[in-house]
Specification:
With 268 residues, this protein is mainly alpha-helical. The chain has one domain. The protein is 71% helix and 2% strand. The chain is built from 7 helices and 2 strands; from the N terminus they run H-E-E-H-H-H-H-H-H. Strands 1-2 form a two-stranded antiparallel ribbon. The chain is globular and about 75 Å long. It starts with a helix and ends in a 5-residue tail after the last helix. The N terminus is likely disordered.
């Protein structure tokens, strides 16, 4: 009977174990409640991540020395990673330098907002609600369209929707597919990929650590052994989330660079 009651606890409202839910991403307002400017905990986390990344980049590049210190070296490593492995590698030196500021901003903004999900007392990624991923996806979308129009004002949309080498009678099929894949699916997938990865990651971490608390401090007895297992799983998943935070920043930025590269390709 004791075991049965513990198994039923996640579904009870009696102070037992309650699994995480999407309500975590809709916290109560802290400032300006009831207005369009309402600020909740996630907004404060986003503000904090933005302030931190701006301070790091400004302080790290303000007084650069020929022989850099540790902090400058760390900042330079991050900047060089975006410049060499994303911008120059995909776009070449000329176009890479043109779009380097926006790619660098995108990478570090996503990275730092992702990392807040594993920082104690914050424990929520700033990218786990749709606003930030959507805004960044729109910026990416506008940038690659701008790059294509700038490269070939007359032929960008024509070459995007009517690719060369396709028999004319197939355009009735190809053109709608190209429109969907190029101008609709790209921003949607950019948004959802980042949003869902960080949302699910938060839910998994909360599940592991709330289960640990339940097994160790509420269930007691032999159920404490389950707490040891969920704690170990939570710690391992925290390390995995650090990797995911970096990979999602990298993937988002590199896909933006790929879209820009396709827009400035010679056929456009």
């Amino acid at each position: 009977m004791h075991a049965a009651s513990l198994i039923a606890a996640p579904f009870a409202n009696d102070g037992g174990f309650h699994p995480p839910s999407l309500d975590d991403f809709f916290p109560e307002g802290l400032l300006f409640q009831g207005t369009i400017f309402e600020i909740n905990r996630i907004h404060l986390i986003q503000f904090l991540a933005t302030i931190v990344v701006v301070l790091i980049l400004v302080l790290g590049t303000r007084r650069m020395r020929v022989v850099p210190g540790r902090f400058q070296s760390l900042v330079e490593m991050g900047l060089d990673f975006v410049r060499v492995n994303i911008a120059h590698d995909l776009l070449g030196r000329k176009d890479g330098n043109r779009f380097l500021p926006i790619l660098t901003t995108m990478f570090f903004m996503v990275l730092f907002m992702n990392l807040t999900g594993v920082i104690p007392f914050l424990n929520l990624p700033g990218t786990s609600i749709i606003a930030v991923p959507l805004v960044l996806a729109v910026v990416s979308y506008v940038t690659f369209i701008y790059a294509g129009i700038k490269k070939s004002p007359k032929n960008f949309f024509k070459n995007s929707l009517f690719p060369a080498g396709v028999p004319p009678f197939l355009y009735i099929i190809v053109t709608p597919l190209e429109f969907l894949s190029t101008f609709i699916i790209r921003p949607v997938t950019l948004t959802l990929r980042l949003l869902m990865n960080m949302l699910v990651g938060h839910l998994m971490l909360v599940l592991f650590f709330s289960a640990t608390q339940f097994f160790l401090f509420t269930a007691g007895g032999w159920f404490s052994l389950f707490g040891v297992g969920t704690l170990a799983a939570g710690l391992a998943y925290t390390l995995f989330e650090l990797l995911v935070a970096f990979l999602q920043a990298y993937v988002f930025t590199i896909l933006t660079a790929v879209y820009i590269q396709l827009a400035v390709a010679e056929e456009h």
